[in-house]
Amino acid sequence: MNTSIICLGSVLQMSIGKQMIFSMGLFLFTPALLAVPSSLEIQANTCNVCHGEEGLSQGSVPSLKAKPIAYLEQVLLAFKADKQVGTIMNRVAKGFTDEELTAIAHYYAELK
Prior knowledge:
The chain has 112 residues and is mainly alpha-helical. The chain contains 7 helices and no strands.
């Protein structure tokens, strides 16, 4: 049996007051459910593990937030090509295409 029909049937059997509360709950939580991060945000968020939330490092790892686009793009592509020495960034950068690295550079440069 279709569970969506059961759920709708249950809602219709509720009193008007309960239906209003149920509807308000749907209204309040729907925006949160629709706020699905883009694939770029998901890719960029992998950087947050080391570089801090929104690229703002709290430790010895460099911050990425609001750095110039050209600098970030140059460094990311250099890591990928093994032209920049790093501990883990060379391996991480190789997991992205050049276009993805450029998009990530733009993402962090545009954070204010």
